[in-house]
Amino acid sequence: MLMVGLTGGIGSGKSAVAARLAALGALLIDADQVAREVVAPGTPGLAEIVEAFSPGVLAADGSLDRPALGALVFADEAARRRLEAITHPRVRARTAELAVTAAPDAVVVNDVPLLVEVGLAPTYHLVVVVQTAVPTRLERLARDRGMDRAEAERRIAAQADDARRRAVADVLLTNDGSLAELHDAVDALWQNRLLPYERNLRERRVAQPEQVRLAEPDPTWPQQYDRLAARIRRAIAPAEWRIDHIGSTAVPKLAAKDVIDIQLTVPTLAEADGPLVQRLADAGFPRMPGQWWDSPRAAGRGRWDKRLHASADPGRPVNLHIRAADSPGWRYALLTRDHLRADPDQRSAYLLLKRELAATAPDSTTYTTAKDPWFDEEHLRAEEWAAQTGWRP
Question: Which of 306, 317, 293, 307 shows the shortest CA–CA distance to 372?
């Protein structure tokens, strides 16, 4: 099943997105609803809250007086963290129970207001963030919830800001327009990304573009890598193997195919052929069929074997290269990246070659192979630079 995290600040319209996704066929798990369930009368969760904050947080009928509790915790960070320590583990456990009941082909959307604050982003295949301008949110909170401005501002300030949410967002839905516009954006997301992603994930298929198309340098590529690397780290845990952003998208100011190249370092390639295959596929990175290797850059060294995985997400192409630590291909990937970062002349020469080949190469395989002669020479230049600078991987 595809696990989608949905979040957004209070008053952003996240609930409208959740409702639309549910209407389209997603299985919706509402963290607020689950949070109420785990502190219902008679639960251990409610008993622990009363012990921590006094019986003053109870209503006359013995249920949790949420406004009274909110008045305590939203003005006191330590109190809020104490409450989160009580409720968040219970919410996560109950959410997991609900997700297990989903069909194998389900798109499960977990609506979590504090997804960013509690660091849950890497636990999902995809994170959708609803972003709305603060003045619009204040207006909606006053109109729809009768919340006075001071209280609304306190609630907004207690949550992650827009920059932190954007950092974890695979999909950013802007909700400053009409409800119809928001629905159109959600419908497009469902048809063009979520459904194909779920199918690819279930069938262990990759979603790789065949056509060579250079994109101008994107300053968010490193941030996109960070999100992907966090998911990979979670998939390989408890192993703490090295993960690096490599390839052209790791070199600032360099146009590139919009494909994030990632290198996962394993002690030996045997490690890449065991349970890791399934764990990476479950995380959204199925193995590419066939045998894969890098062309050696020095005569007489034989081919440089590796394993290759890719992304099942049609909205974010990825090449995940798995190489053994200290192997020639592993070292070369890091050396080339760092040399191109350091040498603007070689970066410019490489960019010129890329543009020429992108205009003539019919497919990705031809494009990659045609670059080999240039990289043979780059290998010598990079090794000379490494010797001069004392570079180490």
Answer: 293
